[in-house]
Design brief:
mainly alpha, Arc Repressor Mutant, subunit A
Length: 562
């Protein structure tokens, strides 16, 4: 009889174990669908992650929420950051920090870090990557450890902490070589990524210090090592990146002939891989190398090819510089109409840049230097006296353009003075202000008093920062109806409920920006989200309406004043 019970117990135990194993295998199978988003599409991956949310296992719930937030952020969809942050933290806090969970905890923190990186929150990304690195070490998972060290190196590179980036990149590469046998057939793929990583970091260092021979040699060494070893099995796209990196390095070293040969190879590789964004950048790099070597015909060909590829409306530094270089080239070729066309286009593009971007190009506003078109056109006129009447017309257009630019500069200075004045008024107003509802006076009856007290509680709890805050929910929370609440706000505040909401939110944002330097480093989108705004454009418009200046101007001046 005892043997019979023992048999039943063992059978039951093994059945439960088998069932548990099947459940875990099924969850892992669903989890892996996330990593197929490039093949099956983001929406399909989100569908599987929503299925994963139905489990009762906290670690998989945390991963699913992190995965969905990342995919929505990647696809530029509307994301309720607070909801996902709260959900992820809720289930992470319930997840046991034990051996079998180290891997999924690593994966979850990687996703949180990647999302933060896409939002420009580099400090948050770094914190999550470092946490992931700890879990990879605990799990003794060498591939994940190598991968996360590479991610951390790239974050340091983006933060311009290049010394730390090099150190982390070298750690990752050293781990690859120390664990060659364990990596097996993944060895060369893993090492290739780490070498790319280090080459890019040294390239950034070289751009900061062009005369540093150590940085140049290190950059060339790592890029060449990828070409010298056939085991890396580089695709056309990766070959293009290597040739481009080598060519740019030689261009910085002013070895333009070597640079041209390599950059031309990169163009062929990018064409074969149909990597048009890299092809655009490749045409610019190749054209600029020819331009620096005074080969203006080839430079012009490459610059025009780059402009032909670019279809979006985003003005990047290369796009602006191409127009400047083309205007110079056509002047040297004495093709006045073309020179004037690209100079005017350059001036127009320059005029719509933000004040920060203008600062980067302040030298181009000093037209007494290389870009003094007035002198250059006069030189052409002397050489072509029979076309004087044509050149005079062009000169008039050029002078008009210069006047427009000068006016833009003067206007910008005036706007800065006005912004300074407005900033002082805003800070003085903020330092002397109290709760918005303290301005409600002459309460007429007890019902009004109840509403005012309700609004005061809303302000004190910062409920107005939540996404669901509106007239209906506020009335419901206070215990009145929307009509009466709107009437009371209109009567005592002399404004609509919408304006009242915006005033509370903007006052809150002004306060936190004034007090917290960390928040001033956030993007406009992230700052707006702190105040309950989900759209950076509408937030900027509302902020300027209430303060007279943009969020960027406010942060810029605060940083100078405090």
């Amino acid at each position: 009889m005892p043997k019979y019970f023992l048999y039943l117990f063992c059978s039951f135990f093994f059945s439960i174990s088998a069932y548990s194993q099947n459940v875990n295998n099924n969850l892992e199978s669903i989890k892996k669908k996330f990593y197929l988003y490039n093949e099956i599409g983001a929406d399909s991956s989100i569908y599987y992650m929503n299925k994963l949310l139905k489990t009762n296992k906290n670690e998989y719930k945390a991963f699913a929420y992190a995965a969905i937030e990342y995919l929505k952020t990647r696809e530029k969809k509307k994301v309720n950051s607070k909801f996902y942050n709260d959900s992820i933290n809720k289930y992470l806090s319930k997840t046991q920090k034990k051996k079998e969970n180290y891997t999924i905890l690593f994966d979850t923190h990687i996703l949180i870090g990647n999302t933060s990186k896409r939002r420009g929150l580099l400090k948050s990304a770094l914190e999550n990557y470092l946490t992931a690195e700890n879990y990879a070490n605990l799990a003794k998972d060498i591939e994940r450890t190598i991968k996360i060290k590479g991610n951390i190196a790239l974050i340091y590179q983006n933060m311009e902490e290049l010394t730390k980036a090099v150190k982390k990149g070298k750690q990752a590469l050293r781990l690859v070589d120390e664990n060659r046998d364990r990596l097996n057939n993944r060895y060369y793929v893993t090492k290739r990524k780490r070498i790319f990583n280090l080459a890019a970091i040294y390239s950034s260092l070289l751009k900061d210090q062009p005369k540093n021979q150590v940085y140049a040699d290190s950059t060339l060494y790592f890029y060449n090592s990828l070409l010298d070893n056939k085991n890396y099995n580089l695709s056309p796209f990766y070959k293009g990146k290597v040739y481009s990196g080598l060519g740019t390095t030689y261009s910085i070293k002013k070895e333009y002939a070597k640079a041209a040969s390599l950059l031309e190879k990169s163009l062929i590789a990018f064409k074969n891989s149909k990597s048009y964004s890299y092809l655009y950048k490749g045409y610019y790099n190749t054209g600029y190398n020819y331009y620096l070597s005074n080969d203006y015909n080839n430079a012009k060909t490459k610059f025009l090819a780059a402009l032909d590829i670019k279809k979006d409306t985003i003005i990047d530094d290369d796009y602006l510089h191409i127009h400047e270089c083309l205007s110079e080239i056509y002047l040297k070729e004495e093709k006045v109409d073309s020179a004037n066309y690209y100079f005017n286009k350059y001036s127009k593009l320059h005029g719509i840049l933000s004040s920060r971007e203008k600062e980067q190009y302040k030298e181009t506003l000093k037209l007494d230097k290389e870009n003094d078109f007035n002198k250059k056109l006069n030189s052409l006129i002397k050489k072509n006296t029979r076309k004087t009447y044509i050149y005079n017309g062009i000169l008039f257009i050029l002078i008009t353009s210069l006047i427009v630019i000068s006016f833009s500069v003067v206007k910008n200075k005036r706007e800065k003075k006005e912004a300074n004045k407005r900033l002082e008024e805003l800070l003085n107003k903020k330092s002397s202000s109290t709760s918005t509802t303290n301005n409600f006076v002459n309460l007429k009856d007890s019902q009004n008093e109840q509403i005012i007290k309700g609004l005061l509680k809303i302000e004190q709890s910062h409920y107005y920062l939540k996404e669901d805050f509106n007239l209906y929910n506020a009335a419901k929370k206070i215990g009145t109806n929307t009509t009466y609440l709107s009437k009371v706000v209109k009567e005592y505040k002399k404004m609509s409920f919408s304006d009242y909401t915006n005033e509370l939110r903007i006052n809150y944002i002004v306060d936190v920006l004034t007090k917290d330097k960390k928040i001033r480093s956030y993007t406009t989108q992230a700052i707006g989200e702190l105040g309950g705004y989900k759209n950076a454009k509408s937030f900027t418009r509302i902020f300027k309406k209430y303060t007279g200046i943009t969020p960027y101007q406010f942060v810029e001046k605060i940083d100078k004043e405090l």
